[in-house]
Amino acid sequence: MYYYEIYIENNRGIYTYKSKEKYEIGQWCIVNFINRYKMGLILAITEESKIQIDISKIKKIKEAAPVLSIPDNLMQLIKWIRNYYISDYYSVIKAVYPGALKLNYSKKAIYQKDFLENEYLIGEDNSENSLDEIKKFNDYMKKRKEVTIATLKKNFSSKIVEKAINEKVISIEKKVILNSKISKGEKKKSEIAEKEIILNDEQQKAVDTIKNSENQIFLLKGITGSGKTEIYINLIKESLKQGFGSIFLVPEISLTVQMIQRLEEEFHNEVAILHSKLTDKEKREEWTFIRNGEKKIVIGARSAIFAPVQNLKYIIVDEEHENTYKQENNPRYHVKNVAIKRAFLQNDNLEEDETVKSKKIKVILGSATPSFETYYQAQQGDIELVELTKRYKNAKLPKFEVIDLNETAENFSEKLLDKISQTLKKNEQAILILNRKAFSNLLKCKDCGNIPTCPNCSISLNYYKYDNQLKCHYCGYETQFNSTCDECGSHKMRQIGAGTEKIEEELAGLFPSARIVRVDSESIKTKQNYEKVYNDFKNHKYDIMLGTQIIAKGLDFSNVTLVGIINADIILNFPDFRASEKTFQLLTQASGRAGRGEKDGEVIIQTFNGENDVIKKTIESDYEGYYKNEMIIRKMLNYPPFGRIVILVISATEENLAKEKAQTLRKEIVKNIDTVVKLTTNNFISDAFKSPIYKINGRYRYQIFFKFERENILKIKKIIKKCAGKFQKTEKKLRITIDVDPINMM
DNA sequence: AGCACGCCGACT
DNA sequence: GTCGGCGTGCTC
């Protein structure tokens, strides 16, 4: 008899089942759980002696489930993520294995005997219709022997079905049915584009380095327009010819239209594109194709890192500095971390032979402005740095100009207005960026000073003029704006902090003949929307594209010669140690939109902080210099990449409860840690303090901030896990979230 | 203190 | 769905 540790679908616990059959780790099976058949995943095989519970309670596994198993390397990855991010099997497996692949359960009716027609008629409906129905029922059942209850109910009255059950004409059995019917659409023969990609010397050198190096992790640092994509495609293509697959990760599928079109052109039906909009059926098909090795290239956002690609060779994380690579709910993993772990896990498992080198997975992190944490690893030699310094087709870098907003009361400085007019006159295009949607950030009453705030969150409501609503960006709360102050009834509500909607209005007033398009998450709700706007702008159906940071990235328009940053300070003021790094990235990325074609580009940055080092280093295009300055501060304060951070958020609907319990939990953790690591400024636990966003969705939030030397972090995480777990068991009203290596500090 | 009752979470 | 643990509130 074998004993197995089993994860049961949609259940938080791990249970022991037994079987005479041998099951593999990662295989799915059917088990009886609370009188229901459920899918179970084999996590481990255990020895009888190690079982904690009463062995007589242990049930038998019913049978193997007829679904594809999770490959061994992904099972190891699941276990690692659960451990590293202080998560649980339930959340991690949900993230890794698409729900669409699961089994369904339906009740089946099994033929037992015929209805005795006369018997049925006594005291019942004896019309012609019902006699016919009885006959039909009998014939039906006799022929099919078994049929789902759902089908029966569709074809017969509920009365007759009920009667059939009562008189044991049919018996009911719960049957497991496979939800993963794959349509037998034949995969077409591979038709890889044979179009030759011409690489310049620098690109060719980069390709050769990545191919031939003994290293497994690479940082491809290349300024915008230096042609990283060609390098990716070249590597994927070459490895594909030898039967290897690749995973290509992008920050957000809907915003990377160009990249995806490009890869589809190159690889046609070898490509599976994974994204959240796929239907269940599509997800099943794609997963199965990938698992069976019929599709070898996967493109997708974050979760595509879990694609069961066969003979995986390259994992490419494009725009590796992007925040969207960090999942903001449990499991709070960072895809970069997971990608590297996946590569190492698999590489370590390889059989040592002469082909081992060619089978090793390589991870390529690509960016024009690498996150400082990645760049630090490259400096340390943990990651091999591959640099591209020439702009593709020798396009020049744009010219910068900084405008001090202290000198003007307007949203547009004279200089920026002048530059926009000139651009329009030359029949060229401009991109204007403001990292704030809505019409205004907040409203403030001139008479009493009241600021309308979300009732669920401690956040001022944003004002949207187009539908005259006040909206909360955190919980989605919306309310009609009636032009008066709720507190004092005054009509003088001042708009503070202009958003894209307002800028659009001003712009239309200033340049009445210009064709303007606004792009932010409010105006672009679907991928189709985005693609249309993108193509229309490219075809010069618009003169000015105005938008939030979503237009700062990756767009390639050769006729854009002016980029204007309306206000560079918005991110800079966030309570986040990465705020200035993020600002540097945004400004650099944005300026890369200018001058991608033959014409020279120009960038105008409007800011209240012209003297800030970030702005200075941006206009000097001095990544290295800014990195060095920032590292001095990080080192001094022991922030990543030096120290490690964990944030614990304790929330409750009752304000006092959240506060008190957060303090209690903190004390408990401090007590435990105190015996293991001496607390200093570098090994630090904050008080339980109000989160920067104190209230979200009706829950009051307190957080505890942990900052520790790297070598202590394992011990610390263990203690946090233990204490928080114990605490959560007794404190049901509290919600505790643990964020390891947080990106969002609010 | 002892017991009935009802709520809620666990169920291998 | 059903069992048991726990908190509450009533009674001795």
What are its keywords?
alpha/beta; GIY-YIG endonuclease; Rossmann fold; 6 domains; six-stranded parallel sheet; DNA-binding; DNA replication; 3'-5' DNA helicase activity; zinc ion binding; zinc; PriA_CRR
Which secondary structure elements does this structure contain, and how are they paired or packed?
Elements: E1 2-8, E2 14-19, E3 28-33, E4 36-46, E5 61-64, H1 72-84, H2 89-96, E6 104-111, H3 117-121, H4 128-144, E7 146-148, H5 149-155, H6 158-166, E8 170-177, H7 201-212, E9 217-222, H8 228-241, E10 245-249, H9 257-267, E11 271-274, H10 280-291, E12 297-300, E13 312-318, H11 335-348, H12 356-359, E14 362-367, H13 372-380, E15 384-388, E16 399-404, H14 414-425, E17 429-433, E18 440-445, E19 462-464, E20 469-471, E21 478-480, E22 493-498, H15 500-510, E23 516-519, H16 527-538, E24 544-547, E25 560-565, H17 579-591, E26 602-607, H18 613-619, H19 623-637, E27 644-652, H20 655-674, E28 684-685, E29 689-696, E30 699-708, H21 713-730, E31 735-740
Parallel strand pairs: 9-14, 9-15, 10-12, 10-13, 11-12, 13-14, 16-26, 17-24, 17-25, 23-24, 25-26
Antiparallel strand pairs: 1-2, 1-4, 3-4, 3-5, 6-7, 6-8, 18-22, 19-20, 20-21, 27-30, 27-31, 28-30, 29-30
This protein binds a DNA duplex (12 and 12 nucleotides) through strand 2.
Organism: Leptotrichia shahii
Cofactor: Zn(2+)
Binding site for Zn(2+) 2: 454, 457, 472, 475
